[in-house]
Design brief:
- The complex is a heterodimer of chains A (99) and B (257).
- Chain A has a domain of 66 residues: Ubiquitin-like (UB roll) (Roll), CATH 3.10.20.520.
- Chain A has a three-stranded antiparallel beta sheet, covered by helices on one side.
- Chain A contains two helices and three strands, in the order ββαβα.
- In chain A, 12% of the residues are buried.
- The longest helix of chain A is centred in the middle third of the chain and has 12 residues.
- Chain A starts with 11 loop residues before the first strand and ends in a 23-residue tail after the last helix.
- With 99 residues, chain A is an alpha+beta fold.
- Chain B has one domain: Ferritin, core subunit, four-helix bundle (Ferritin).
- Classes of the chains: A alpha+beta (99), B mainly alpha (257).
- The interface between A and B is small, with 12 and 9 residues.
């Protein structure tokens, strides 16, 4: 496992908050907690003090699989010149142009 | 709006101040944890609770001042009264002790407050009923926070269990005062402003005892000791608390900032 894990520290959790019904949960920060219940409670105290949210998700930072910044060129650059992947690339007939 | 005409009776005013003072003094104690919490998340959690409690006190003082009709505002109640006029229960003025002691006190007292707020929903004092309706939501969270930690630490390591049991043994005798008789109980019962506190004991015990059992803590024996903070008879710790809390207004009367 990860040799850098400091067992005296509580695990890190990432916090996502939905600010209003109908909007997506957005990442807003991270915190330490020993388990999921404590992470939710801490998230409430740390991140929703000014009415920021109506719903909170927490997820162990360890459980998030992230893309590798070193492979950014091959991951993302090839999309740069493919303008035909955007719907606005296509001219529609007048009859449907107000879609 | 308050449907009762000012000035209200002395018993009514005392009833409000007992609740307000208990909230304020516990809020002040918890504010002492600011910057000293065991982890930053708990530091913020306790400060949130402190702010809620002080907010409850402010609302009640403002209402008490308006009901009394003597032109006293929230600052006068908080900063200009001498120790013997404070009628908070003695438990809330005790020093914070370790984190176990802080948590056990929060649990025992906020569980009592919750019963009080619920009963006050139907108070004929409309302003008081409104304050209770707002406060009960805050208090439910305070009870939840303290309950979680009571179970985690009570049913935790040998060290945390021993500290929790020590805290409970120390604080338990002070719970008797929540339900002890007050001189104006008869008048309060007649007026129906709110519950006579002794009537809340069964509900409080039914809420508190099962949780302490889950936390594997032993309920201490009841003793004859009854603290009397409600009557203005405070312990030595109240003096140092007030001298710090009231320092600015004492040194610079009526100063604003």
């Amino acid at each position: 496992m990860n040799a850098h894990v400091n067992h005296k520290e509580w695990p890190l959790w990432e916090v996502f908050i939905r600010s209003r019904n109908g909007l997506d949960h957005k990442h807003c920060g991270s915190l330490h907690a020993v388990d999921a219940a404590m992470a939710l409670k801490n998230a409430r105290d740390v991140f929703t003090r000014r009415m920021e949210g109506v719903s909170v998700w927490v997820v162990r930072a360890d459980d998030i699989v992230a893309s590798d910044p070193d492979v950014k060129p091959e991951m993302f650059d090839p999309a740069a010149d493919k303008i035909y992947r955007h719907p606005t690339f296509y001219t529609l007939p007048d009859e449907v142009n107000h879609m | 709006m308050n449907t009762l005409t000012a000035p209200v009776s002395a018993a009514h005013l005392n009833y409000l101040l007992r609740i307000a003072d208990s909230s304020l003094i516990l809020g002040h104690r918890l504010s002492e944890w600011c910057g000293h919490g065991p982890v930053i998340e708990e530091d913020i959690a306790l400060t949130n609770v402190a702010l809620d409690l002080i907010g409850q006190a402010r609302a009640l003082y403002t209402h008490a001042g308006a009901s009394e009709g003597r032109d006293r505002d929230e600052d006068v109640f908080a900063f200009n009264r001498p120790q013997e006029e404070f009628c908070n229960v003695s438990m809330v003025e005790l020093p914070n002790g370790d984190y176990a002691c802080t948590i056990v006190r929060n649990f025992l007292f906020t569980a009592f407050q919750r019963e009080l707020w619920v009963a006050l929903h139907s108070s004929p004092d409309a302003a008081l009923a409104q304050i209770a309706a707002k406060s009960v939501k805050e208090t439910r969270y305070h009870v939840q926070h303290a309950s979680d930690w009571t179970v985690r630490m009570g049913d935790g390591t040998d060290e945390s269990h021993a500290r929790m049991q020590r805290a409970l043994d120390y604080l338990w005798p002070y719970t008797a005062e929540f339900f002890s008789a007050s001189l104006d109980d008869g008048e309060i019962a007649m007026s129906g402003i709110g519950p006579v506190w002794s009537t809340l004991e069964t509900a409080w015990r039914n809420a508190v005892l099962p949780l302490l059992d889950v936390a594997t803590l032993q309920i201490p024996q009841r003793t004859a000791f009854v603290s009397r903070g409600k009557e203005g008879m405070h312990g030595e710790h109240m003096r140092t608390l007030l001298s710090e809390m009231q320092f600015l207004q004492r040194a610079h009367p009526n100063c604003k900032w």
